């Protein structure tokens, strides 16, 4: 699997650190309550098919990248800097 | 059809013509007392214990593919009870005890082989952790022995002891740990359940779960509607999709785990050996193949095959630990889909929907759990209360934070377990 970092270009998957589904961008407010926080920290849609996850370009520029990819075929469909991606 | 020594000899002398099918390939009826979704190890053992321990035999196991075609037939077959935290420790201890009586109970040769598992350690800190774990294992009533380097050198001389990077400081041995023939475990439970009246229905995919007024009323399948008041979701890597049919989101992310097997060799590795510095575990099958594996591919995946970076990683770890295996040719590799929970521990629980039960989160350790999981799940479904060995495997532990079982201490990220 190869991932295109929006800054560095297409790179080996091993340059990146995987950090789970991109819903990490939807951080609840501090007082959102335990339901919301449980959901945010633990629960996942976990689709078989298209998904968005967060990868950190650890061995490159250090950017956080939102990767749209297919979990059944491993095809990478699109990548975007996390700071530009609305959740 | 029962097995016995005499029968094996008789069949051997008469061309093996007298063996019959091990279970009935049933067609769905309109209604059952209990419907189990998923014909893997856990679904089949649940059906077996429902019938055997609780006399509930009007049960269907619905499997979208063929029985045993999922992870129960794809794992590296390691069976052990070396868990540390309350919750896991009593559960896996319970499961190992069931393993020890399994062949007799099922009248089925599952080739359960208690050849011993050695978990190596490579630093003072790891040694301390191993001592602590060993004490916990003994406290839970299981066996554990600390091995010095000198003892290890005698037992397993072929490891690379003196390397500069990961010198071996010793190992923790559990003699009662070992392996079992994974397919046979599924087949044995299937036969035992079928003989007691359970319908095992293959090529039957569940596509919907019917809920009315907060109660389960049935399931929709590729072979029609089935009415029932109790549904057990036991679908391992597919847990999220199954639960979504009932409107639930789970603390589960699915990941691929690969395994490898070499050509058949003469016996050379007598134990199960786990490398403490990289994720690598190896044993030799009774056919002679070296069976080994390592880490997850590390990102959510439903492809029952892996990617090359992890193949390389596993091979490197193996070569670091035991350079002698470098001569062996790898024959096959494959992947299975793991239901990774955020604390790396399983869930056996009721849901908020009346009559809907959940069994998932086995991560990559669920094969050893097959007897314990089915036994405890059957208890829960039959009586409505958790079995005492599984009393802490609850879904709400994530919400409350109470009773989390993060064995590795790696935190709430699914791929890290
Ligand atoms: C490579 C690898 C190595 C492993 N090594 C070990 C090990 O050494 N020791 C250990 O303890 N564990 C190990 N595991 C983990 C262990 O195999 C699993 O945790 C365990 O097998 C999962 O439970 P199961 O057997 O019931 O799952 P499965 O066999 O996967 O059963 C689930 C079944 O549900 C069916 N299903 C899914 N959705 C539906 C639907 N909608 N309708 C009908 N049926 C459905 C599937 O087809 C499948 O047959 C390993 C796993 C892998 C992949
Ligand atoms: Zn970059």
From TrEMBL, chain A:
Top-level division of the source organism's lineage: Bacteria
UniProt xrefs under InterPro entries: SoxD, SoxD_sf
Pfam families: SoxD
Name listed for the protein in its UniProt record: Sarcosine oxidase subunit delta
TrEMBL record, chain B:
Superkingdom classification of source: Bacteria
Annotated Gene3D superfamilies: D-Amino Acid Oxidase, subunit A, domain 2, FAD/NAD(P)-binding domain
Nucleus in keyword set: no
Cleavable signal peptide: none
Catalytic activities: sarcosine + (6S)-5,6,7,8-tetrahydrofolate + O2 = (6R)-5,10-methylene-5,6,7,8-tetrahydrofolate + glycine + H2O2; sarcosine + O2 + H2O = formaldehyde + glycine + H2O2
InterPro entries referenced in this protein's UniProt entry, alphabetically: FAD-dep_OxRdtase, FAD/NAD-bd_sf, Rhodanese-like_dom, SoxB
Cofactor(s) needed by this chain: FAD; FMN
Subcellular location, record wording: Cytoplasm
Domain called Rhodanese: residue spans: 34-78
EC numbers on record: 1.5.3.24
Keyword annotations from UniProtKB, A to Z: Cytoplasm, FAD, Flavoprotein, FMN, Nucleotide-binding, Oxidoreductase
Chief site of localization: cytoplasm
Name of one Pfam family that matches: DAO
Family indicated by similarity: Belongs to the SoxB family.
Protein name: Sarcosine oxidase subunit beta
Annotated source species: Roseovarius rhodophyticola
Upper taxonomic lineage: Bacteria, Pseudomonadati, Pseudomonadota, Alphaproteobacteria, Rhodobacterales
């Amino acid at each position: 699997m190869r991932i295109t970092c929006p800054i560095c270009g297409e790179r080996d998957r091993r340059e990146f650190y995987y950090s789970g589904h991109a819903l990490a961008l939807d951080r609840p407010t501090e007082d959102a309550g335990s339901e919301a926080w449980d959901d945010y920290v633990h629960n996942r849609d976990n689709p078989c098919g298209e998904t968005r996850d967060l990868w950190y370009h650890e061995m490159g520029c250090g950017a956080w990248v939102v990767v749209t990819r297919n979990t059944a075929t491993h095809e990478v469909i699109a990548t975007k800097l996390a700071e530009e991606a609305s959740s | 059809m029962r097995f016995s020594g005499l029968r094996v000899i008789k069949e051997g002398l008469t061309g093996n013509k007298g063996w019959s099918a091990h279970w009935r390939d049933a067609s769905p009826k309109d209604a059952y007392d209990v419907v189990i979704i998923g014909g893997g190890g856990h679904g089949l053992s649940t059906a077996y214990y429902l019938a055997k321990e609780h006399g509930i035999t009007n049960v269907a196991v619905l499997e979208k593919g063929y029985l045993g075609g999922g992870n129960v037939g794809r794992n590296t077959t390691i069976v052990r009870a070396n868990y540390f935290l309350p919750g896991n420790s009593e559960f896996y201890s319970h499961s190992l005890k069931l393993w020890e009586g399994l062949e007799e109970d099922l009248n089925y040769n599952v080739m359960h082989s208690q050849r011993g598992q050695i978990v190596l350690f490579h630093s003072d800190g790891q040694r301390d952790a191993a001592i602590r774990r060993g004490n916990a294992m003994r406290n839970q009533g299981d066996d554990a022995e600390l091995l010095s380097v000198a003892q290890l050198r005698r037992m397993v001389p072929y490891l690379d002891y003196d390397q500069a990077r990961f010198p071996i400081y010793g190992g923790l041995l559990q003699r009662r740990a070992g392996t079992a023939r994974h397919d046979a475990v599924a087949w044995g439970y299937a036969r035992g359940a079928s003989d007691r009246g359970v319908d095992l229905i293959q090529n039957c995919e569940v596509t919907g779960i019917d809920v009315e007024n907060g109660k389960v009323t049935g399931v929709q399948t590729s072979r029609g509607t089935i009415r029932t008041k109790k549904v057990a979701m036991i679908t391992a890597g597919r847990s999220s999709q199954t639960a979504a049919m009932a409107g639930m989101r789970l603390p589960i992310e699915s990941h691929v785990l690969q395994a490898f097997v070499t050509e058949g060799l003469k016996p050379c590795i007598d134990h199960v050996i786990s490398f403490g510095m990289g994720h690598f575990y190896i044993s030799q099958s009774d056919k002679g193949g070296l069976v080994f594996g390592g880490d997850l591919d590390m990102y959510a995946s439903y492809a029952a095959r892996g990617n090359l970076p992890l193949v390389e990683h596993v091979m490197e770890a193996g070569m670091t630990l035991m350079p002698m295996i470098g001569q062996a040719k790898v024959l096959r590799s494959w992947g299975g889909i793991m239901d990774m929970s955020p604390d790396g521990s399983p869930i056996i629980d009721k849901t908020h929907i009346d009559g809907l039960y959940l069994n998932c989160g086995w991560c990559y350790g669920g094969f050893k759990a097959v007897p314990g999981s089915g036994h405890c799940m059957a208890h829960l479904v039959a009586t409505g209360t958790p079995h005492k060995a599984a009393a802490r495997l609850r879904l709400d532990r994530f919400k409350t934070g109470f009773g989390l079982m993060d064995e590795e201490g790696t935190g709430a990220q699914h791929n890290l377990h």
